[in-house]
Amino acid sequence: MIELAEAIALVEATATPLPARRQRLLDACGRRIAEPIAADIDSPPWDRAMMDGFAVRDADFPGERPAEVELDVVVDLAAGDVSGVVIRPGTCARIMTGAPLPEGADAVVPIERAVDGTEDAHAGGRVRLREERYREGQHVARQGAAFRTGSVVLPAGSLLDAATVGLAAEAGATHVVVVPRVRVAILSTGSELVACDDMPAYGQTRNSNAPMLAAAVSLLGAEPIAMGIATDRPEAIRAAVAQGLAADVLVVSGGVSTGDLDLVPAAFAACGVEQVFHKVRLKPGKPVWFGILRRASASPTLVFGLPGNPASSLVCFELFVRPAISILAGRPRTAWHLPRSRAVLVSSVKGVGDRPVFLPCRLRAATGIFEAEPLPWTGSSDLVGLAAGAAIPGAVPGFIALPAEGVRYEPGTEVEVVLRSELGAS
Ligand code: AMP
Ligand code: MG
């Protein structure tokens, strides 16, 4: 049995970021790019009309304003049209938003500024334009104004959200180099388990750990892979473990303590997984197991055996699996763990003498410090106490983290708390 801090440090020392991979841009949404993206064109790629109107020469407009000017329309240009026509003095082009500004022109006068209507203001006709406040270059997006060929439009580390995906696409990046989503296989063990959409018979238990852990994995931005249930038979567990080792992380729940049917550590060993630790001074979650399968030619798989009791499983996920996934995903150290804070107790709680303990609570922001309300909790098989922390808008679910002291902490005492809400205190 090792201390909690040592166990967390071992996870942190064992996990290493996944290597970045080249992926199709759209497959990489939500990831951070590992390499900068440089543009293969200018943006705009050419001087672009930004209004429907007339492409004119600045020099045709006198210095004083307002100015009224009559011009020959020499060409009609819709978006997508290109023409070799040059706009000479006294002429203009009728132009639509998105068309390249023709040579010789340097500004667009909006169509609303045509004085006598625009029916005749097409190629071969004339137009009278009146501008109150005309400025050179108006309504033109200049070539390269947004970015230049070869320039970095997105530095390494940028998150691929809707805007950055659009920009990468405009810059010609059909593929990007990203740290891939961490794939986390989730396996439940126990002959008593049935799927959650079944009504359990006498002696059976719903496999609630699988959706719970899949949710925790998804909320971390990783990809849960459902491995289902393995019954408590060495061959069944070994076969399922062997399959789950194809993922970046394998999380197995149940079967890790020292009961007769706790076959999981043996299955890990049989599959070549090297044990890093087994059993941590912690409540709930003491039986937790952690190891690594190293490979000569591929990334290793990190392997966790979590206790079967749902609350123990979740506590162990938050303490050990969360930092592992975060490290694999290349997150900064500050984002590896759930945030911790100090809080004032609203009602009394009691620690245990031999182990640090994590008790479900509800946290509310008080003046300068949180208030922690311990929640009724019957122990490690009870998810109701944990879930109650999330029941009230404005409150954050969390844990009260008590040191290994078997003493009672009275209301008003300051304690350490772990904030469990990733979704914000909304
Ligand atoms: P174990 O860690 O296998 O000794 O299981 C401890 C307790 O957790 C037992 O009551 C199991 O029935 C229960 N348990 C184990 N796995 C799950 C699961 N996937 N979902 C819900 N409860 C479970
Ligand atoms: Mg079991």
Protein traits:
alpha/beta; binds adenosine monophosphate; five-stranded mixed β-sheet; single chain; 426 residues; binds magnesium ion; six-stranded mixed β-sheet
Alpha carbon gap, first and last residue: 39 Å
Instruction: Report the major sheet.
Output: 6 strands, mixed
Taking pLDDT < 50 over at least 5 consecutive residues as the criterion, the unreliable ranges are none
Radius of gyration, Cα only, in angstroms?
Answer: 32 Å
Structural class: alpha/beta
Biggest sheet: strand arrangement: 16-13-17-21-20-18
Q: Tell how many strands the DSSP assignment holds.
A: 28
Give the names of the bound compounds. Answer: adenosine monophosphate, magnesium ion
- Count of runs of 4 or more consecutive helical residues: 7
Mean pLDDT: 94
- Helical residue percent band: 10-25%
**Overall 3D shape:** elongated
Strand content: 25-35%
Brief summary of the model shown:
With 426 residues, the protein is of the alpha/beta class. The protein is 17% helix and 30% strand.
Folded structure, characterized:
- With 426 residues, the chain is α/β, with parallel strands linked by helices.
- Helices cover 17% and strands 30% of the residues.
- The chain is built from seven helices and 28 strands.
- It has helices spanning 4-14, 162-170, 209-219, 234-244, 264-270, 310-328, 384-388, and strands at residues 2-3, 21-24, 37-38, 48-49, 53-56, 67-77, 91-95, 107-110, 126-131, 140-141, 152-154, 175-178, 183-189, 193-194, 205-206, 223-230, 249-253, 274-278, 280-281, 289-293, 301-306, 340-345, 349-350, 357-365, 370-374, 396-402, 408-409, 414-419.
- The strands form nine sheets. The protein has a six-stranded mixed beta sheet with strand order 16-13-17-21-20-18, with helices on both faces. A five-stranded mixed beta sheet has the order 8-5-7-6-9, with no helix packed on it.
- α1 packs parallel to α6, α3 runs parallel beside α6 (310-328) and α4 packs across α5.
- The longest helix is centred in the last third of the chain and has 19 residues, at 310-328.
- It is elongated.
- The two termini are 39 Å apart.
- The model has no long low-confidence stretch (mean pLDDT 94).
- The structure holds adenosine monophosphate and magnesium ion (MG).
- Magnesium ion is lined by residues 189-190, 254-255, 261, 308.
